[in-house]
Write a structure and sequence with these properties.
The structure is a homodimer. Chain A is α/β, with parallel strands linked by helices. Helices cover 38% and strands 18% of the residues of chain A. The longest helix of chain A has 23 residues. The first copy, chain A, is globular, with a radius of gyration of 26 Å. Chain A starts with 16 loop residues before the first helix and ends with a helix. In chain A, 56% of the residues are buried. Chains A and B meet through helix 1, helix 2, helix 6, helix 7 and helix 8 of A and helix 1, helix 2, helix 6, helix 7 and helix 8 of B. Chains A, B: InterPro entries: Aldolase_TIM, N/Namide_PRibTrfase, NAPRTase_C, NAPRTase_N, Nic_PRibTrfase-Fam, Nic_PRibTrfase_pncB, Nicotinate_pribotase-like_C. Chains A, B: Its EC number is 6.3.4.21. Chains A, B: Catalyzes the first step in the biosynthesis of NAD from nicotinic acid, the ATP-dependent synthesis of beta-nicotinate D-ribonucleotide from nicotinate and 5-phospho-D-ribose 1-phosphate. Chains A, B: Pathway: Cofactor biosynthesis; NAD(+) biosynthesis; nicotinate D-ribonucleotide from nicotinate: step 1/1.
């Protein structure tokens, strides 16, 4: 028995068993070279919101390049009942498929394909699990981060969640938080891997390890004259913590230094921030910043500002890194082509019937650059001038005169990356620039406007045709 | 810039920045060898339930043995403003502390220490983040798994969650699900690492890759004569899927094989399971099992059985592996001793004031072996014959005549493991045996009985004394 962190997490065993069982069957019938296409999409906006931020692509692409079975993996698979020839085939397995994708950081909507994987039946199927695992989670967290940023009024946002994150997923939570607009993290390994600042102050235990709070503050400030943030709520925030921080700030001034901030981590943050600000300002310390942490989310950040709390920096943990209250994005990966024929998955519920064929997504914007609607069309179609409502046959929308851009671009061809990985801070910039083009009514928390994603007539008709055909066949 | 999975996740950089900032300060004042103790405990039962299952210890202990900074880590830390001597100290850093812990799989309750870490200020603080990250998440998931098992009436439970898990945390979710009573997983790498069976059937895409459902079933069954489970809801469960599965099962019988089961993954599972069971039984296939999946949790599993659904195997995904709706356990790590003096963290709220000193937890049971109450006592005390309510001075409980056992045992001494890691299936057995000794009223989902965790009089008095002292000091 090994342990998780001593395991090669890039192994192609990071998949669901049925992917291997199906591959085994396809191999047995010599169908493993049949060409297929799958779409990655999701059905419901997280947090009852009006948008999501697509995240995780960079990691998926790096992984697809590494995705293989080690000799040790193959040895282990000998105990699972697969035929020897199939295991030999797996020994040589590499992902050599072609991938089209939206740019990482794109603002995205339900039902539209975000990634399209084309390849043989085995490779396209084996990567399903890891693709869903990475994209679902990171998109969930990047979206949460973006929602917090929307109401942060320019305040600095730091990710503080590693201790409450879902195990090793905490690393990817840091990555996604940066994508959505956080600019630093408490997670030191995350800071190293993703190239962002690691930040942190002191814990209550540091102060408790001294006999007196003032002595603890003094010692810490002396060692950290730059970027010093003092935690002021260990004993009594307004009677002890803030006055002691003021004493130390004044002493720092005499040494030519400036206290960077104080941190509030408990109690009524709105009230305490206002009172602390008054005390600091009265002492001539208007430059000292107020940092708050403790069970924050987008609703609390918004409420703190609505109450007029003078907060400069937010440290956000649990809700951000676990994507509360959703905890998961419902992204799926569905077959759209096999043997050059478009396929769909029927459902009693038309909303769960999938969109057949190779597809492109066009985004339309007005002259100010604001996003108007998205069209899902068949690959090769130009941007349609009219889109159909996906479920209501009588509803359509004219898009004549709007400019459009195709969102799905080739990112990997026959297993080779077509571009260098995008640094995560560039991804974050892209997400911010795209979000700025989505108007406020789509971004509000309560009953957001629903962004229109329609189908081209050709795609709509193809779906209808295939539904009718499959329904007849299955009777 | 690297990527998450290409990173050594055992690095001591897997911590919060403030742990390093505090260590830097302690080192600077030559306090880094001061001896301290910390307790790991949590405050609130997950899922509004009456118990939790302690999980993740095995991984924490393995990690503590590996926990160090690589040369590359130290090089990177040069950019973070720490002094050269401190970085040299970190270069030689190893965890050499002593750890007391409850057994992994123990049934546990709020406020009582589950783990005690004793060591110097630096080592005890640096491991806080990873300890919380591993234990909070795995205990959350093991508890969810145990809750599902409670209502599963002996049905087989498989973990199916990797695609919706929180990134790499999905690996640890598999481990914790096993701890709580699941016996197999769809996660192939998890199966390999943790030594449990990998299970899986087929996806809708497999059936869609054929022109006809029956042909798909036939081909799959031929390659998988053992353990074959057919997914029957791609087109129409009762009109197409189940009849086709029956045809294939009859054909398998002629080859001397038996279809293992059918899987329902959509629709009204209670209704479909009953109807499918009738069709199978009418065809003389009473041995064919019914497997269900699709958005299950403990409440749905319970409801399915309450409705009389004849289900043999449950595949549980999202809710299990993300610990919905909680998504995080609120476990914390608090200083209890420094320089041989007991410490506590004050709070306006007595419930958030921590328990000072080195402590032991005693569990009492009646003559039938059922758990009665736990006592938190000072280390060295015998099991007290009476416990105090932790917050209500007038309430106490007599425990005379009950047998007791100490729950905290040494597991690591000066950085060396005192025992071999426990295989995860043994941990699961222990969890099951302990849960069987907790009576039903603590295990029900609605308003469970609150298990009594009291304090010894000595501990109660010590907390009172320190509270009064600190309060006076801070005024």
């Amino acid at each position: 028995m090994q342990h998780t962190f001593a395991t090669d997490l890039t192994s192609a065993l990071y998949t669901d068993m049925y992917q291997l069982s199906m591959a085994h069957s396809h191999f047995n019938y010599n169908r493993h070279n049949e060409q297929v296409a799958f779409d990655y999409f999701y059905r419901k906006q997280p947090y009852n919101g009006g948008f999501a931020v697509f995240s995780g692509l960079g990691e998926v692409l790096m992984l697809l390049q590494e995705f293989k079975f080690s000799s040790n993996d193959i040895d282990w698979l000998h105990n699972t009942g697969f035929k020897e020839e199939f295991l030999e085939f797996l020994r040589g397995f590499r992902f050599r498929g072609t991938v089209y994708s939206m740019r990482e950081g794109e603002v995205v909507f339900p039902q539209e394909p975000l990634v399209r994987v084309q390849g043989n039946l085995v490779e396209a199927q084996l990567v399903e699990t890891v693709l869903l695992n990475y994209l679902n989670f990171q998109s969930l967290i990047a979206t949460k981060a973006a929602r917090i940023k929307l109401v942060a009024r320019g305040a600095t946002l730091s990710e503080f969640g590693l201790r409450r994150a879902q195990g090793l997923g905490g690393m990817q939570a840091t990555r996604a938080a940066i994508t959505g607009g956080f600019t630093s993290t408490s997670n030191v390994l995350g800071a190293k891997v993703y190239g962002v600042p690691a930040v942190g102050t002191i814990a209550h235990s540091y102060i408790q390890s001294y006999k007196e709070e003032l002595a603890a503050f003094r010692d810490f400030a002396k060692v950290n004259p730059q970027g010093c943030v003092l935690l002021v709520d260990t004993y009594d925030t307004l009677k002890s913590g803030v006055p002691n921080a003021i004493t130390v700030a004044k002493e720092m001034e005499q040494q030519g230094h400036k206290l960077m901030g104080i941190r509030l981590d408990s109690g009524d943050l709105a009230y305490l921030a206002k009172q602390a600000r008054q005390q600091l300002d009265a002492a001539g310390l208007s430059y000292v910043k107020i940092v708050v942490s403790n069970q924050l989310d987008e609703h609390i950040v918004k409420s703190l500002f609505d109450q007029g709390a003078p907060i400069d920096i937010f440290g956000v943990g649990t809700s951000l890194v676990t994507g509360k209250p959703d905890a998961a994005l419902d992204g799926v990966y569905k077959l759209s082509m096999a043997n050059n024929e478009p396929r769909l998955k029927l459902s009693e519920n038309i909303k769960k019937t999938t969109l057949p064929g190779l597809k492109q997504v066009y985004r339309y914007h007005d002259s100010a650059g604001n996003f108007i609607a998205d069209a899902v069309a068949l690959d090769g179609e130009c941007a349609p001038a009219m889109i159909q409502h996906p479920y209501e046959p009588d509803k359509s929308m004219q898009l004549k005169g709007y400019q459009s851009e195709p969102l799905l671009q080739p990112v990997m061809q026959h297993g080779s990356l077509l571009m260098k990985p995008t640094p995560i801070l560039e991804v974050a910039d892209y997400a911010a620039s795209r979000l700025s083009r989505l108007t406020d009514e789509y971004k509000r928390f309560e009953n957001p406007h629903i962004y229109k994603v329609g189908l081209s007539k050709k795609l709509y008709d193809l779906r209808t045709e295939l539904r009718n055909k499959y329904k007849k066949d299955s009777l």
